[in-house]
Amino acid sequence: MISFKQLPLEAKAAVAAGLVFFSMMLSRSYLAEQLEIRTRRWLLRLQMALFANALMLIGSLHVWRSTVTTFSRSSAASSLCFIPWKIAVFMFLALAHSSFFTLLFLVAEEPYFFSLAAYTCLGAYIILIFFLFTLGSVEQAYKFLAGRGAKAGTGNKNSRTAMKPVLAVMLTVVLTIVGLLNASRPPTVNSVEVPVHKLPSSMNNLKVVLLSDIHLGPTVGKTKLAMIVRMVKALKPDITVIVGDLTDSEAEIIRPAVEPLGELKSPLGTYFVTGNHEYYTSDVSNWFELLKSFNIRPLHNENVKIVSPKSTDDWFCLAGVDDIEADVLRYSGHGMDLKKALRDCSSEHAIVLLAHQPVAAKWALQERPDINLILSGHTHGGQMFPLHAGAYFLNPFFVGLYKVGQNTFVYVSPGTMYFGIPMRLGSRAEITEIILRSP
């Protein structure tokens, strides 16, 4: 029987990741109600950081062997550039691994340079892993299809072996720069017209501005949020809604960065529902109080009547549900409760639902197909290559406007900022201007 010491490093990292994941499930199931909320918050974040780092260690070993060990066996090892290259690769991997710990120690009004560098390396790390794996798979497929014909010389073989990591690194550098430049641009304003069944004619052309996934935290601060608020004010919305993942940190720590939200003054109100990241902070109650101080109303499994400025007899029901992650985390007093959220919302009036995750939108429509419009976020539109495939297949609605049935629409925002990694590849940050049309 093979002992733990005899296992390769990749297997040890996988075992470590499994143990951390088991401890996460154990603490969620048995310790959630027993621990003080602050202790639970730190434990959850530490576990998530350790779990991510254990998984990343498997990839990091592959990166090191591909970009360093491969060249140490060639004439390049004697070059004066080889030692600086080893140091650069080591620092790159160290920064990528440290990114998850910035949530614990480096969150302030504006992002620290170290946090931006660490998350940029994390984004480049993901791209590099993808290209190393893809090019390696292509190489193996070529060898399989070519068979065992004429054997190439040792020189040619070494040249081909070195070419793979060099090409992967070059592609990574180019795409990282492109991703950083794309994410640094202001969000695009996307105007979408949505016909809403049973919307009163007096409310035709009502303008709803949708924000989602701002992720105030290590890499998004007050300056970015102030820019978003200025853009929203310029659109002059009737209603502003924030559909979750506003933050990645506790309210007390990042309060100065949130102050621009106090400038949102939509005539028919500004509303908020939780996303999964609000529950990761374990500080939802304090966030609710902070948002209320800025006249932003959290819809905690509840609804409000949006009354027409032209006629008090005309209105529609705006409802919001807690994020489904609250149930997974056993967050006391929270969790998606559609019946409670839609209490007194009858099918005689139009119903608009705010639900952070597209999966929640799907569940809501299965239970209440009379909902006319659901506004969601969460997917980030994949945010950056090569994460699009995962976001696409894991969500019933990916990004943009979907028609479901005869009178129902779902709109999924690609996000107003980004989570952690200050990069966007194959997606664009967006502020959505939704124009409600009466039939």
From TrEMBL:
Residue ranges of the TM segments: 12-30, 42-64, 85-106, 112-135, 166-183
Protein known as: TMPPE metallophosphoesterase
Gene it is expressed from: Tmppe
GO molecular function: hydrolase activity
Phylogenetic lineage: Eukaryota, Metazoa, Chordata, Craniata, Vertebrata
Residue ranges occupied by any Calcineurin-like phosphoesterase domain in the UniProt entry: 206-381
Keywords: Membrane, Transmembrane, Transmembrane helix
PANTHER family assigned to the protein according to its UniProt record, in alphabetical order: TRANSMEMBRANE PROTEIN WITH METALLOPHOSPHOESTERASE DOMAIN (PTHR31302:SF0), TRANSMEMBRANE PROTEIN WITH METALLOPHOSPHOESTERASE DOMAIN-RELATED (PTHR31302)
